[in-house]
């Protein structure tokens, strides 16, 4: 039977009882319920937007080691922030975090959902999460875990964002909004998982329409993925994997990072044309091909052919700069080549 409002008190009690006993111990859950440390919650919510919790814990602790307070983050140069964010991807998040930290350091912590929404890079979900977890504000979150739990609970195969938010708002435990949001997210992350839900362990099993159907993993139906655009490009490695010529990236995806000099292969042209254009721009001479690497980011699959070259600008130490995963893959081609030269025959 589909859950109805009369079921909500028992349903809320069951989930919160489960959470009080089995909630995850996470490094950003510092402080009493509903009054979590705002800096740690904020950094974690931004970080986990596109990062799994297992990897996110490592990145979170590394970031907090580098910038233990919002004042330290605000005072740091953006280059240092991007370096600490290295490997997390979606670097606009780090740039917005840095900009917003400057505002918080000057004006103090936001005291409401609307105050959080006013900061750069803070959308409705992030603002709802932070305001409920740190201010005790009755705001329901809507993320992938919550979407899956609620879709299964109500047996909805194609839940829209509007539908999920409406159910989350209706079900929210207003007396313990922070704990309720953490409980729903934990349930989705540990029990109501995508491919093999652990229904016998679920505190909401008695009300779950998807479980009663016999096919809980079929809810919700998979989202239609946006088409991936293929991008071809060439890069020059002048130097080696330790010291190389680097350029600062621009644009929304990788803006602010350093990387190997790169040129996109335009539609209708040969790779050799892009390579000649890049070599002429740098005043460099190509000495050979190192290989090809691929990387997918935000609906783009980049195929990058990397060439060794001499001449051009002076190489700089690579370790001190923040590089994208694509550039790290490109530098690995040099390491592989060097190792093969000295490998025993």
UniProtKB/TrEMBL annotation:
GO terms for biological process: base-excision repair; mismatch repair. One of its GO terms (molecular function) is purine-specific mismatch base pair DNA N-glycosylase activity. Pfam families: HhH-GPD, NUDIX_4. This is Adenine DNA glycosylase. Its EC number is 3.2.2.31. It catalyses: Hydrolyzes free adenine bases from 7,8-dihydro-8-oxoguanine:adenine mismatched double-stranded DNA, leaving an apurinic site. It comes from Deinococcus terrestris. Keywords: 4Fe-4S, DNA damage, DNA repair, Glycosidase, Hydrolase, Iron, Iron-sulfur, Metal-binding. It is an enzyme of class 3 (hydrolase).
């Amino acid at each position: 039977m589909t859950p109805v409002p009369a079921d909500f008190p028992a349903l809320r009690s069951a989930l919160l009882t489960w959470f009080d006993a089995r909630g995850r111990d996470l490094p950003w859950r510092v402080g009493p319920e509903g009054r979590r440390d705002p800096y740690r919650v904020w950094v974690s919510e931004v970080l986990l937007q596109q990062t799994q919790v297992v990897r996110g814990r490592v990145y979170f602790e590394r970031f907090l080691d580098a910038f233990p307070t919002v004042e330290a983050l605000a005072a740091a140069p953006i280059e240092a922030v991007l370096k600490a964010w290295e490997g997390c991807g979606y670097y606009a998040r780090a740039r917005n975090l840095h900009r917003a930290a400057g505002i918080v350091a000057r004006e103090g912590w936001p005291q409401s959902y609307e105050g959080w929404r006013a900061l750069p890079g803070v959308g409705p979900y992030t603002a709802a999460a932070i305001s409920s977890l740190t201010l005790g504000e009755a705001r329901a979150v809507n993320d992938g875990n919550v979407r899956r739990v609620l879709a299964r609970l109500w047996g909805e195969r194609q839940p829209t964002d509007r539908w999920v938010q409406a159910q989350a708002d209706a079900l929210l435990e207003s007396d313990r909004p922070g704990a309720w949001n953490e409980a729903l997210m934990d349930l989705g992350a540990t029990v109501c998982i995508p491919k093999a839900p652990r229904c016998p362990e679920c505190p909401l099993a008695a009300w779950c329409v998807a479980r009663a159907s016999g096919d809980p993993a079929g809810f919700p139906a998979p989202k239609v993925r946006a088409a991936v655009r293929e991008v071809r490009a060439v890069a020059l490695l002048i130097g080696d994997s330790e010291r190389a010529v680097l350029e600062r990236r621009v644009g929304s995806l990788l803006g602010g990072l350093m990387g190997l000099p790169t040129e996109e292969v335009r539609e209708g042209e040969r790779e050799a044309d892009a390579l000649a254009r890049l070599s002429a721009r740098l005043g460099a001479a190509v000495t050979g091909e190192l290989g090809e690497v691929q990387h997918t980011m935000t609906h783009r699959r980049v195929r990058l052919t990397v060439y060794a070259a001499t001449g051009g600008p002076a190489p700089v130490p690579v370790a001190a700069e923040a590089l994208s995963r694509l550039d790290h893959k490109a530098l690995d081609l040099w390491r592989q080549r060097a190792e093969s030269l000295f490998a025993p025959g």
